[in-house]
Specification:
Strand content: 15-25%
Radius of gyration: 31 Å
Structural class: alpha+beta
């Protein structure tokens, strides 16, 4: 089906703030420069808010105002730029990518086999016994080489020819254009030299250039495929249907899109949980490695929370839905993976700009070299050979791979460690960190505290507070929901930032939150903490009734002390900024060996502390749960949030980490430093290569074959340097996402 026959409007979905959204699979994306060309080209259309290309999956995400531009116009603009668009389907995309990989491998095999045979023929001509070879034998070898080279170039060069011709047809240059020109000129000149019975021909240069280029492109494709498989493994955990209880008590299997918050679903033994929710009946064991990073089965019973994508054991569960299709933790993890892979860092933008300038510079350098040698008195054929060598040796493939190769490997390694990036330059900013500020509740402590004591089932106020708590994902609210068994949320809930929640019930104000928010006196707080030392307090107030305090026990994350010690050994300054009460925070700080801490802090006070540190030149990492800490997370140099602590869409963090351990923080800092070093090394490799190689080629000391080997070696060097991150990080996974 051609583009004008397809109803592209059918693939448009509602976006945010009145915009619409469409995902497209785009053929012809081969490098970082292609990403920039597509994004800049589409942004010229009226109403385009965002156009972002994922180089790994070749997925284009577009957000725009529908009354200004139509879906057909976007696809037409892509065609003008030289790219073919298809509706994005992960299954079809995987098949398309596999097909591309096989094609590259076939082209590589043909080029390698042909190159070896042509090299044997060339050695025969250029060997020390060349004087014994008659002109007729030499010409026969050359024609035999041509017979092998011409069909080989036509077949193995297709990935480059197709890309270059699409670019030229759209009136632009890409990094494949100089490759095609160099190969074509080498072949054409070799044919001319063979016809003229000359001693030299450069068929082997053209074929070996393709061979080395195909090695680099196949390695890049294979590396991106490995990273893409992480996201595919996560997506495979998503159920498409759910068994829903109907009003008459019957159970029917319906599409996940028909499941709403508040529905009751049945999860049989051995099935994946289709929704986020609370167990209303039944008990089982669940593999929660998606959330915790641990593969051990966790006992689950009534009142406990389960997540979509986790695997149920042998028991049967009835789950009350709290988040269904599109809003589950699994969906949000997928969105984070997509956002991270589409995001661009400062180094990528620098490489993009350099690559855009590089194409005209490459052609200009080759042209000036040709003219210069002609003016110097050299014949046109040797001058052309030198200019071909310059054209080949200056190809910016290494520069195009320098940053994306590292980002692909680094993001894959971070994901293996349970870290999901939410910002394109998070790696760079993490590598700068010298100070870490921790929130306490849900960050240094486990996300789900437990109520000290039990709830009186006849206590209506506490029951109402449990229903009010459903509007929050704060760890203490989640614990209250679990303790009360609340299922139906209250309407018209208002959140007071840094304080709590409030609504109106029976014309009386109902508040849930910090003790001071609910009007609890300091004396009452001290009395409660005397009975429950180190507890976190949640207060309830309904109308004119006296406020009541609920104490919750919080356990430190299992490796909190070990991680703090590791961070200290790295010379990092560590502080705790918590909104909790002083005795609780002091107890936590003492247990972790942290000397600098502050309690009772409101969001504005955390921001003030951040600003003070930033004025001192500190690069601050804020680690918080993403709710009351959202302003601080957004204001910090870089930020991390535990995924289990808050709804991801509310988190302002640059990255989130999975599991009950803090080890991902250490891993994120370690890997980001290595990644940044690798990026800088790759940029220096690319720049240094050209500084050294180009003058030598312009001076005429490089043959086209030598240029092909040198250029391909530079591309392989930056790829190998990126892969070094994986080899260096080969220790056993302690927090690997299954």
């Amino acid at each position: 089906m051609t583009a004008h026959q397809r109803d592209w409007q059918a693939f448009v979905t509602a976006g945010e703030d009145g915009a619409v959204h469409m995902d497209l699979a785009v053929d012809g994306i081969t490098c970082a420069a292609c990403m920039g060309e597509i994004e800049r080209g589409l942004k010229r259309l009226p109403g385009i808010r965002k156009a972002r290309v994922n180089l790994t999956s070749q997925r284009l995400a577009v957000d725009w105002l529908e009354d200004q531009t139509g879906a057909d116009e976007i696809v037409s603009e892509l065609a003008k730029l030289g790219y073919t668009a298809h509706p994005f389907d992960p299954a079809n995309q995987k098949e398309r990518q596999d097909k591309t990989g096989k094609q590259l491998l076939r082209c590589l095999a043909v080029a390698g086999f042909a190159g070896m045979n042509i090299m044997l023929l060339s050695v025969s001509v250029w060997s020390g016994n060349a004087t014994d070879i008659t002109p007729e034998t030499r010409d026969f070898f050359h024609w035999l080489s041509a017979l092998i080279a011409l069909p080989t170039v036509a077949y193995s060069g297709r990935p480059f020819f197709n890309s270059a011709f699409r670019a030229l047809a759209a009136g632009r240059l890409n990094m494949d254009v100089p490759i095609v020109i160099g190969v074509s000129l080498a072949v054409a000149l070799s044919v001319v030299q063979t016809v003229q019975h000359q001693h030299h021909a450069y068929f082997e240069s053209a074929v070996m250039l393709l061979f080395f280029l195909l090695i680099g492109r196949f390695l890049d494709h294979n590396m991106r495929g490995r990273t893409r498989s992480f996201a595919e493994n996560i997506a495979a955990l998503k159920a498409e249907v759910a068994a829903r209880f109907n009003a008459d008590g019957s159970v029917r299997e319906v599409p996940l899109s028909k499941i709403n918050t508040g529905d009751l679903v049945l999860v049989s033994g051995g099935e994946r949980v289709p929704v986020d929710g609370v167990v209303e009946a039944g008990s089982s064991e669940i593999d929660q490695s998606l959330v915790t990073g641990e593969s051990a089965l966790v006992p689950i019973k009534t009142g406990q929370r389960v997540y979509a994508g986790t695997l149920n054991g042998a028991g049967v569960l009835q789950v009350r839905v709290q988040a269904a299709s599109g809003a589950t933790l699994l969906d949000e993890v997928n969105r984070l993976l997509e956002a991270a892979s589409q995001a661009k860092s400062k180094y990528v933008r620098i490489a993009d700009r350099a690559a855009r300038l590089y194409a005209p510079l490459v052609h200009g350098a080759a042209g000036l070299t040709f003219l210069g040698w002609l003016l110097a008195g050299l014949e046109w054929q040797p001058a052309l050979v030198i200019s071909i060598s310059v054209l080949i040796i200056t190809c910016p493939c290494a520069l195009g791979l320098a940053v994306p190769a590292v980002q692909v490997v680094a993001s894959g390694q971070l994901f293996r460690r349970g870290i999901l990036l939410n910002s394109g330059d998070a790696i760079e900013r993490l590598s700068d960190v010298d100070t870490i500020l921790f929130d306490k509740t849900g960050t240094l402590t486990l996300a789900e505290p437990e109520l000290c004591g039990s709830i009186n089932p006849a206590d209506e106020v506490t029951a109402l507070a449990g229903r009010l708590a459903l509007a929050s994902r704060h760890p203490l609210s989640t614990a209250l929901v679990k303790a009360t068994g609340a299922l139906v949320p209250l309407p018209d809930v208002m959140e007071v930032s840094g304080a709590g929640l409030e609504t109106s019930v029976d014309d009386k104000r109902l508040r849930l939150g910090s003790p001071h928010f609910c009007g609890v006196s300091n004396h009452e707080i001290e009395q409660t903490l005397t009975r429950f030392p180190g507890a976190s307090l949640l207060a309830i107030r309904h109308g004119g009734q006296p406020a009541r305090l609920l104490p919750f026990k919080q356990s430190l994350r299992p490796d909190a002390r070990e991680v703090v010690d590791q961070l200290k050994r790295q010379g990092l300054a560590i502080e705790i900024l918590s909104g909790d009460l002083r005795p609780t925070v002091e107890d936590c700080a003492r247990a972790l060996g942290i000397d600098a801490w502050q309690a009772g802090m409101k969001p504005a006070q955390k921001i003030a502390r951040l600003e003070k540190l930033q004025k001192q030149g500190r690069k601050v990492l804020m680690v918080g749960d993403g709710l009351n800490d959202a302003p601080a997370l957004a204001g910090a140099h870089v930020s991390l949030s535990p995924v289990s602590a808050v709804h991801l869409s509310q988190a302002a963090a640059d990255a989130v980490f999975l599991g009950d351990k803090l080890q991902p923080i250490v891993d994120a800092l370690r890997l980001s430093r290595k990644a940044r070093a690798a990026i800088e090394q790759n940029l220096w490799i690319s720049a240094g290569y050209n500084v050294i190689a180009v003058p030598i080629a312009v001076a005429g000391f490089v043959t086209p074959l030598m240029a092909a080997i040198a250029m391909s070696a530079s591309s392989l060097a930056v790829t190998a340097n990126a892969l070094k991150l994986r080899w260096q990080d080969g220790r056993p996974d302690s927090n690997t996402v299954s």
